[in-house]
Design brief:
Blueprint: E1 3-11, E2 17-21, E3 24-29, E4 32-37, E5 44-49, E6 56-65, H1 67-88, E7 91-98, E8 105-109, E9 114-118, E10 127-130, E11 136-139, E12 146-151, H2 154-167, E13 181-189, H3 190-193
Antiparallel strand pairs: 1-6, 2-3, 3-4, 5-6, 7-12, 7-13, 8-9, 9-10, 11-12
């Protein structure tokens, strides 16, 4: 069944500028600038000003859409919310190195933009992972065997963490017993910790 008009709005916080052009949303804040393309969604984006509070809002509308398109309104708003959080607070993922016998040796390379993993399960192979754009990686000073990934875009930070995790899969062994690897231990914001 088609729904004639479904819409939802979200408040834009102070200090954030949002531009919408041809379904590409650009968000600018104190930590930088992020943009996201919503051309694959059949939605209308517009910036409106609230009559009473004079605050800017982002309005997303879906005309003659199915239940699927109605659901995508909330999804798009969540993505924009993540962009706003990224340019205000930033995202931080923490990863822990887990090993039973052979200590995993990780060295940060190319100015906090890459990592080299050695001695995983005693293997001689060097595993290299480059971080995605705008993601930096450092070793934690307080906690042993911990890596900290920082960035503005939640997708790029989480994908970089996934790339590191996937490099350390145990092959040809019972993975219930061999739990060695590098795993995400904590997800949060940069601003909250500092």
């Amino acid at each position: 069944m088609k729904i004639i008009l479904e819409s939802d709005t979200m408040d834009i916080p102070d200090g954030i500028t949002i531009k919408v052009h041809a379904k590409v949303v650009e968000v600018e804040g104190p930590r930088g600038k992020l943009s996201r393309d919503f051309k694959h969604l059949n939605l209308d984006f517009q910036l409106i000003t609230d009559e009473e509070t004079r605050k800017k809002k982002l309005k997303i509308e879906s005309w003659f859409g199915s239940r699927k398109t109605s659901a995508s309104i909330r999804t798009a708003l969540s993505h924009v919310d993540n962009l706003i959080t990224g340019v205000t607070k930033g995202y931080r993922y923490k990863m822990r190195m887990v090993y039973a016998h052979f200590p995993i040796n990780a060295s940060i390379t190319s100015g906090n933009k890459g990592i080299e993993i050695r001695n995983f399960l005693g293997e001689k192979r060097v595993r290299k992972v480059d971080m995605l754009d705008g993601v930096t990686i450092v070793r934690s000073e307080k906690v042993k065997d911990e890596l900290v990934l920082d960035g503005n875009d939640v997708e790029l930070v989480s994908r970089s963490a996934a790339l590191i995790n996937q490099k350390c899969h145990v092959k040809n062994k019972d993975i219930r017993k061999f739990l060695d690897g590098i795993y995400v231990s904590e997800k949060g914001k940069i601003a909250e910790e500092e």
